[in-house]
Amino acid sequence: MVDEQKPKAVEEILRESEKLFLGRPQIAAINNVTYGGKGFIFAPYGSYWKFMKKIIMSQLLSGNTLDILLQVRRDEINHFIKNLSRKASLGKSVEIEVILGNLTSNMISRMVTGNKYAEEDDEIGDIMKIMVDVDKLYGKLNLSEHIWFFKNIDLQGIQKTSMDIRTRFDALMDGILKEHEEARQQNIETRKVKDLLNILLEISEDDDMEIKLTRDNIKALILVLVNYKPVLLM
């Protein structure tokens, strides 16, 4: 057992024994949702994994990108404070857990796709609902994966659930991707701050990249980024 709280142990993991800690079990339901592990986290270690890591660290989550997106976070916090102040002046009660959840979701949604989670945009609200279902799916123990004579039987309906999540996410992302692609084709600058989806589309159009990003790659990465709250909110 390795104690990750100790600096030397962390150095051992990250620098000298990285490959030993990067492998993840191939779980069918998770593969369905992550487009066959194309979202980096569940991708097998190899050239694709290294390529995606480079993109994430050098472009999507670089200090420069997060600094540019700082204004988005500030805008949402200012809106949150004004909204809270308005409700307080009217004597309205609020559920702190709900409004803080919406604040976080709005920040993430705007940084990743340029759209807000709540208020007028039901589409992004649906995406965040899907994220809740994804988290529940990740936490379920699938007996069919662990008991060999049940491997071809969807005992708990987890496979069906995973395909339903994938279908819903596909439909929503297709609409968001179409909107971004049409704006790019018409050279319409609809946002003051470039969102992460636009960065991914630029990468997918770069013929010099060693690996060509597909729509499935982009969707899988968006799935990861929307759930990657700690880093995006730094």
Write the layout of secondary structure elements.
Elements: H1 7-16, H2 18-22, H3 28-33, H4 47-60, H5 63-68, H6 70-89, H7 96-113, H8 122-138, H9 143-146, H10 158-185, H11 196-204, H12 215-227, H13 229-232
Helix pairs in contact: 6-7, 7-12, 8-10
Overall description:
Its main location: membrane. Keywords: Heme, Iron, Membrane, Metal-binding, Monooxygenase, Oxidoreductase. GO terms for molecular function: heme binding; iron ion binding; monooxygenase activity; oxidoreductase activity, acting on paired donors, with incorporation or reduction of molecular oxygen. It is found in: Membrane. The protein is mainly α and 234 residues long. It has one domain: Cytochrome P450 (Cytochrome p450, Orthogonal Bundle), CATH 1.10.630. It has 13 helices and no strands. The protein has helices at residues 7-16, 18-22, 28-33, 47-60, 63-68, 70-89, 96-113, 122-138, 143-146, 158-185, 196-204, 215-227, 229-232. The protein is globular and about 60 Å long.
Q: How would you spell out the order of helices and strands?
A: HHHHHHHHHHHHH
Q: Could you give the count of β-strands?
A: 0
Q: In angstroms, what is the radius of gyration?
A: 20 Å
Class by alpha and beta content: mainly alpha
Q: What is the CATH top level name? A: Mainly Alpha
The geometry reads as globular
Which range best describes the helical content: under 10%, 10-25%, 25-40%, 40-55%, 55-70% or over 70%? 55-70%
Helical region count? 13
Determine the CATH topology.
Cytochrome p450
Unreliable stretches covering 5 or more consecutive residues: none
The count of domains is 1
The major pleated sheet works out as: none
Strand residue percentage: under 5%
